[in-house]
Model the fold of this input.
Amino acid sequence: MDGLKSVQSTPVYTHGSRHLLPLVRTSTLRYAKTPYRNRVWMTMSSKSFNSVSASVHPLEASKLSHSDNTLPSKEVLDLWRNADAVCFDVDSTVCVDEGIDELAEFCGAGKAVAEWTARAMGGSIPFEEALAARLSLFNPSLSQVQDFLNKRPPRISPGINELIMKLKANKTDVYLISGGFRQMINPVASILGIPPENIFANQLLFGSSGQFLGFDTNEPTSRSGGKATAVQQIRKAYGYKSLVMIGDGATDLEARKPDGADLFISYAGVQLREAVAAKADWLVFNFKDLINSLN
Done:
C-alpha cells in the first residue's frame, strides 16, 4: 500500500449520461430504460441517514519525509481563496474510509478488495481495471447494498462540514467527484448540503431480481482520467475562472490539467500517499488549515 494508513469510513440516480447527472430522491426501485433494459438502480431517501462523527486524529506533517509543500506559496493561497468552485474526492477525504472496502468487508471480502484499492489509489494500475476486479471479488446484490447502507452510516472526516459551510458562505460552489458509488455518496452529500446535481460518481447496476450486473461504464469516473474529465465538464458547463481539486489519490491529482483544476490540494489526514503528496500544490493533514486560510 502506498503511504501510511491511519484509519478506516463509509453511503441513487436514474439513467442518463449528461455533463451533470441528477439524482432521484425516492425510496423505490426504478428499472433503467435503454441501453440498460431490465436493469435496476436503487434509489433511497437520504433523510433516513445520519452521519457518524469520525473519532480519528489526522496524520501529522512530521510523518512525511518531504514537507516542502505543507506551506503554501502566495500564488497557491490566492488561487485557493479566490476559487469559484472546489471539487472534493469522497473516500479517504470527505469520509474517513474507502467505501468499496467497507462494502466488501460487510460482504466478506474486505482484505482482498482493500489490497486492490491501495494499488488503484497509488496509481499503479488503471482505475477501471481495479474497479472491475474489486467488484468481481464479492458481486454485491441489491439487498446487500441496502442492508449495508442501513447498518453503516457514513463517517465524515473531522472539519469537512465546517470547511464546506465556509466555502458556501464565500459563494464558492462545491462538488463531490468520486470513483465510489452514488448509492453510498448520496447520504454524504445530503448531510453536507451538497445538491445531487453536484455529484459525479459511479453507479452500481442490478438485475430485476436484485442480482449484481456490474457498473455503468458511461460514467466518466469509472475509468482512469475520469475525474479530470468530470472537472473539465464542470468547468466548461459553468465557465469557472478558478477551480480547485482536493483529494488523496492519483486519480485526484490527474484532475490538475489544462481546462481542469488549477490547483491540487493533497489531503493526507486519512491516507498519506507519498507519490501523490509529493506532486501536490499544497499538502494538508487537517481541514482546519484550509478553514483558517479562508479567514
About this structure: The chain is about 35% helix and 20% strand.
